Amino acid sequence: MNDGDVGPEAAEQGLPVTVVIATRDRRVELLRTLGHLRDLPERPEIIVVDNASSDGTAEAVRARFPGVEVVRAARNLGAPARNIGVRAARTPYVAFSDDDSWWEPGALRRAAEAFDEHPDLGLIAAHTLVGPARRPDPINAAMAGTPLPGEPGLPGAPVLGFLACASVVRRQAFLEAGGFSAVLFFVGEERLLAYDLAAAGWGRCYLPGVVAVHEPSVRRPPSGRRHRAELRNTLLTAWLRRPARIAVRETGRLAARAARDPDARAALAGALRRMPSALLDRRRLPASVERAARLIEVKP
Q1: Three-state SS sequence of 230-249
Q2: Measured CA distances, 196 to 85, 97, 174, 191 (Å)
Q3: CA gyration radius for the chain?
Q4: Rounded to an integer, what distance in angstroms lies between the CA atom of residue 300 and that of residue 27?
Q5: For 123-159, how does the pLDDT look when each residue is reduced to its tens digit (9 = 90+)?
């Protein structure tokens, strides 16, 4: 098999899954990931959405993996770049990888079978193994031990959160839910999508038999920057979907922290800049989804 043996021909082999990867300035890691995906027996279609990289990512992919579809964004779109890949996909199911994550052999086939057997299933959260030692990510145990009540017709434990780099979606459900939010840009975007899938009536579950591998890139944003984005997006998500009293409560909490914590202060300022867009997209969750959201809230 040569490097060109990935791409649209996979559809002819019967795998109804496309892998979508959003990337920015991680050419080396991305080429490693594509090598792993190329070697899968399923040979999925692959779409790379390049978030305006400056390191020659798009050219390198086209040269080494000519069967991979590359879409170049004119600017960094953050997590919503994945939406472009989903819209471009020609298969009913889409698996997300990051440029530092990939899928174990058989995982995508098992995911497709679960979707085929459960027509109301919109999202599968995979079992994630981390690093060269392949240690289970702590999120696996959290999803398996969820306080959420079981949902009829789901093949696994229900979820209202997941890792984007280890998830598979039904394309129709993802598009109906609106995909990843441009308001949030990046960090914590999964929770809002899970809310929106649930609100639209789509099931979401953890399937430990669907396995993804994540070897975190050394090229990661500074921890402080990520922490600020997490604080910002927790507040914005509350204003986007939760009752006003909860959104006001979260605003008060972050404002109180901002008085003594520079990260919280920066997060609050960032949230306020994005607040007009959040309010324009504000939709209250259905009562059943709101009850589920309260069950998994992290108490201060």
Answers
A1: HHHHHHHHHHHHCCHHHHHH
A2: 19, 21, 9, 9
A3: 19
A4: 39
A5: 999 999 999 999 999 999 999 999 999 988 899 999 9
What pLDDT, in 10s, does the model give residues 17-46?
Answer: 999 999 999 999 999 999 999 999 999 999
Residue 193 identity (one-letter amino acid): L
Report, in this order, helix, strand and coil percent for the chain, each rounded to 5: 45, 20, 35
Give the C-alpha separation, 250 to 255, whole Å: 9
Under 8 Å between Cβ of 1 and 38: yes
68: pLDDT strictly greater than 60: yes
| Confidence bin at 11 (pLDDT 50/70/90) | very low
Task: Quickly list H helices, 19-96.
Answer: 27-38, 57-64, 81-88
d(CA 228, CA 257): 12
Q: Which of 31, 77, 76, 32 is nearest to 56 (CA)?
A: 31
Rounded Cα distance, 220 and 26, in Å:
10
The secondary structure of residue 66, as a DSSP letter, is: T
Residue 17 neighbours by CB distance under 10 Å: 24
- The answer on pLDDT for 14 being more than 80 is no
- The answer to whether residues 20 and 81 touch, using CB atoms and an 8 Å cutoff, is no
User: Please, are residues 287 and 200 in contact by the beta-carbon 8 Å criterion?
Assistant: no
Tokens of 173: 């459900």
Report how far residue 222's alpha carbon sits from residue 128's, in angstroms, rounded to the nearest whole number: 23
Say if CB 10 and CB 40 are below 8 A apart: no
Burial 243-265 (b: 16+ CB within 10 A, else e): eeebbeebbebbeebbeeeebbb
As given in the structure block, the two tokens for residue 65 are 């993996």
Q: CA–CA separation, 162 vs 142, rounded Å? A: 10
pTM: 0.92
Amino acid at 145: G
